[in-house]
Amino acid sequence: MKKIPLITIIVGIILVIGGVIFVWKFPGNKTSKISQENLKDNDNDGLKDWEEELYKTNPNNPDTDADGYLDGEEVNSGHNPLVKAPGDEIVFHPLPLGEKYNITQKILSADVVNSILDSYIVQKGQYITDHPEINTPETFSANTKTSTIEEMAKRAIIDSYPILMEKAQDAIAKMPEIFDITINDEDIKISQDNSKEAIKTYLSQVTSILSSDVFFLQEQTLKAVTAAFKNSDFSKLDELIKSNDSKIETAKGILVPSSWKEIHKKGLALTLLIRNIFVSFRDVQNDPLKAYAALDKLENFSNQWNELMKQAIDLAKSQGIELSL
What we know:
Blueprint: H1 6-25, H2 49-55, H3 71-76, H4 103-107, H5 110-130, H6 137-143, H7 146-159, H8 161-173, E1 189-191, H9 196-210, H10 219-231, H11 235-253, E2 255-257, H12 261-282, H13 288-318
Parallel strand pairs: 1-2
Helix pairs in contact: 1-7, 1-10, 1-13, 5-7, 8-13, 10-11, 11-12, 12-13
């Protein structure tokens, strides 16, 4: 796994977070980076149109599975909006989207918001002091660059970062399916056939997923994250998430020789983790603090993945199979 361009991603997320908080407190401001496309909910079912694309629901039908419950209601209550009730609980790891997984909404209490706002007001006051020509709200708007306002908003977020992340981590700990994922034996298909032929067939299926051009850990997919923030265009990121979600379903259905089940479970858990990291980045404009938390997970991810690949190569070697990952 090649080095991830973390600094570019971090800067992009910080700028977006600053913009989101600023717009929440000053809704009339026109410097928002939030695209109206990202806020659209065409059928008013509680899922934004781009979220419906990822969930594979119908953005023009508020109740895709016609069971009497809105798609957004089903997602937020842990049910599958594509399967009629009853018996439509989501039993595998869902996308961490919707109100249920919105960390920012859960923790932005009055004291946290006020802390951010206080920092912004101090910076704004200093800026006005340094620019005596600004003496009214109108002259502030007319004489202050968008980039300056964004910088003040960004610094306000950074000043409040410790309390924000402490509260965010507490909320995330109560939902381990976001970043602390565990795969059990019953989540995969295990075979007692540990012949060399069976293992080679298994490894061939797995490596075909890992070597796919759209797999999360390919260099071009990591570049897509950077490009999404740089260009404020998340369409390619959406395509990657959907493609990899299908690959996760494929990996879940592969017949796994029992000697490989522990590595397979770890690999599936890490693949779900990187998917959730990408989804959190995609959702940054609705849930900036979850995206911030995802950065911490991304920084540690490559070591976890490389260690797992080493374990896989060593196990294959012990079974007389040469494996290159």
